[in-house]
Amino acid sequence: MFIELTEHLKCPASHDEMHLVLVPHGMVGRVVIRGTVGCPVCRVEYPVENGIVRFGPAPAMPAGPPRDPGLAEAVRALLGISNPGGVVGLVGSACELGAPLAGLLGGVHLVGINPPAQVEPSPSLSLLVHGTSLPLRSAVARGVVLGGEYASAPWLAEAVRVLLGGLRLVVLQSAVNAPPGVTPLAAGKGLWVGEKRRR
């Protein structure tokens, strides 16, 4: 986990959002390999193991379809991000786009949530695991990409919660019911994109 990501993390327990506290036990450069993330509100601690922050068990989800090599370029275009900085969330099978998107979105840190087993963390891709929510603070992400297996109401709502206003949600599935607060922009060829309305 990239050490600066700590300020964007959220305890999944039901209480006010508060910055979490990181105690690293092993690092390589700016990447935490082993350690503990703690919540100052409820005092729960979450382990960082092999670079992955484990907020709880991953949900049992079907594997997404194999990824088209050109998909990362299409997703980059739909996200509409053209400058460095901030974070973009990738959920489920969308985490497989981490390596190619890192090259296309230079200077944007990627946060993979509930990645497939074959996806590994890297300096440009931090990995988090939690079965029922996205353990990120509200309105911190410059974009969110959901694997099609996560295109259901609870996960769509979580994606909208973490997304900044005026920025985009991309789903790797073309048939999506737009969640509240999101204006649909386009759908087709296995992709859907909407924009979170500004308040």
3D architecture notes:
With 199 residues, the chain is mainly beta. It has three helices and eleven strands; from the N terminus they run E-E-E-E-H-E-H-E-E-E-H-E-E-E. The chain has an eleven-stranded mixed β-sheet, sandwiched between helices. Helix 3 (153-162) links the parallel strand 8 and strand 9. The model has no long low-confidence stretch (mean pLDDT 93).
List the helices and strands and how they pair.
Elements: E1 21-28, E2 31-38, E3 45-49, E4 52-54, H1 71-79, E5 87-91, H2 98-104, E6 109-113, E7 125-129, E8 141-147, H3 153-162, E9 163-172, E10 182-188, E11 191-196
Parallel strand pairs: 4-7, 5-6, 5-8, 6-7, 8-9
Antiparallel strand pairs: 1-2, 2-3, 3-4, 9-11, 10-11
Count of runs of 4 or more consecutive helical residues: 3
Radius of gyration: 16 Å
| Residue windows where pLDDT falls under 50 for at least 5 positions | none
Q: How is the main sheet built?
A: 11 strands, mixed
Name the shape in a single word: globular
* Beta fraction: 25-35%
Distance between the termini: 31 Å
Strands side by side in the biggest sheet: 1-2-3-4-7-6-5-8-9-11-10
The number of E-state strands comes to 11
**Helix share bin:** 10-25%
What oligomeric state best describes the polypeptide chains here?
single chain
> Helix/strand/pairing class, anyone?
mainly beta
Q: SSE order in H/E notation?
A: EEEEHEHEEEHEEE
Mean pLDDT: 93
